[in-house]
Specification:
Rossmann fold, alpha/beta, binds alpha-L-arabinofuranose, about 325 residues, 2 domains, six-stranded parallel sheet, six-stranded mixed sheet
Amino acid sequence: MLSRSLRSRILVTATAVAALGLAACSSGGGTTPGSSGTAGGGGGGGDTITVGFSQVGAESGWRAANTKSIQESLTKENGFDLKFSDAQQKQENQIQAIRSYIAQGVDYIAFSPVVETGWDAVLEEAKQANIPVILTDRAVDVADETLYQTFIGSDFVEEGRRIGQWVSENLGTEPINVVELQGTTGSAPAIDRKAGFEEATKDNPNVKVVASQTGDFTRDGGKKVMEGFLQSNPDIDVVYAHNDDMGLGAIEAIEAAGKKPGEDIKIVTIDGVKDGMTALAEGKINYIVECNPLLGPDLADIIKTLDSGGTVERRIVTEDGAFDQEQAKEALPDRQY
Ligand code: AHR
């Protein structure tokens, strides 16, 4: 769960949202395109806030936990009418979903962008329709920052940095060959986690990245890419996987090659989902930096704050932990996802 302190930081002031040029208020049937219509039939009505959410896909355990958190937070009982779509990791599907939410006149649009670039046009359309946009989990690279209200999610550069520091201090005391399983090409976490790791290891000449390829954040992708790495690189010491699922796929490939994951080849990953934490506790992974997927309660708070005329911080960074094998054993019984 995100901490109370984080959630309370979202509720900043009761300044008019009009300052940002957007004035959606679903209660009482407003006159902007973002607030007209009836509850459940496109657009807000009465006290219900209609939210169109475009999810990246269902590529990982992290994503499943994130979807569950959003669906369990933006409920009818909590005052929301949630319209949810799964883009199957395709930007064109997300653009289509956002256009459909605009056409339906929803009160708010929230989405986790599959890649960083290519959003200017569709977000401009949302702005023209007076529909506030909230980014969850991943950032966008747009020329006009007023195209979205806020971005809530982890600091991916810091996650990569923390992995790099751990590798440098714990494994880089002698020369090591690292292979990197990157996330989806062009996505914020893939770009940032790579950059953070490079920054943290650049002054340690013992840490050498000998191969780096995308496994698209999936278990299957991680397994296939790792099989290729094992064939072309006889001396792999460490796998740096940008998420648990790819690390779990790498474990399968390493075991199939007759080697012991966590011992013959060390593995470090990011996320901290139950399957990853289980593999860490079993000694098959060596270190995990957490990426908290439980963004639903904060998303609900952000929307309610905006809807009542308040403002929120432009960037809300979620708090993430980190686990070695002993810490994973302790944390596992209470792990929520
Ligand atoms: O954007 C967050 C990343 O996306 C998670 O680390 C990964 O598991 C997911 O697919």
